[in-house]
Amino acid sequence: MKTYKSKFGFEIMIFLTLFFVGIIVFMTYQREPFEAIVSVGGIFLLVYGLFLYLNFSTEYTITETGILKVKCGFLYHKHFDINKIKSVAKTGNLISSPAPSLDRIELTYGKFDVIVISPKDKNGFARELTKVNPKIENKLTK
Fold first, then answer.
1. Which of 43, 58, 132, 140 maximizes the CB count within 10 A of its CB?
2. Where do runs of H (alpha helix) occur along the chain?
3. What average pLDDT does the chain have?
4. Rounded to whole angstroms, how far apart are CA atoms 128 and 2?
5. Is 107 in contact with 130 (CB distance < 8 Å)?
6. Distance in angstroms (rounded) separating the CA atoms of residues 66 and 6
7. Cα separation of 142 and 132, whole Å?
8. Is residue 114 within a helix (H) or strand (E), and if so which, with residue range?
9. Which residues lie closer than 8 Å to 79 by C-beta, 6 or more apart?
């Protein structure tokens, strides 16, 4: 069994920070009540904490039995049969997925299904998948 941690999503964390700090600065400039600013700050900390948790808890495990286990915090736990995976390729797809980073890869499986993930070691991950299923088209190295 081999586990790959997700790449940390700095881009999303920086965006969240700038977005919420901008809101708080704007609220301060508009002389909003202190309680409102503290409430928004509390919401920011909760959202930020959730995204930090998802960044550190997302992992992709390849088992000896040919199953890919994808875990993204307490929100997402799915298993995929590696023998049904058809290809692995880089993607810029921004759909909601168990991929905290925007540096993502796309696995196609089944007839028309796709999962987008972001392992730190994309090439090592793809090599490990192709060891289990040599029929997978590895488009990362092309």
1. 58
2. 10-29, 34-57, 122-132
3. 92
4. 8
5. no
6. 20
7. 20
8. strand 113-117
9. 67, 68, 69, 70
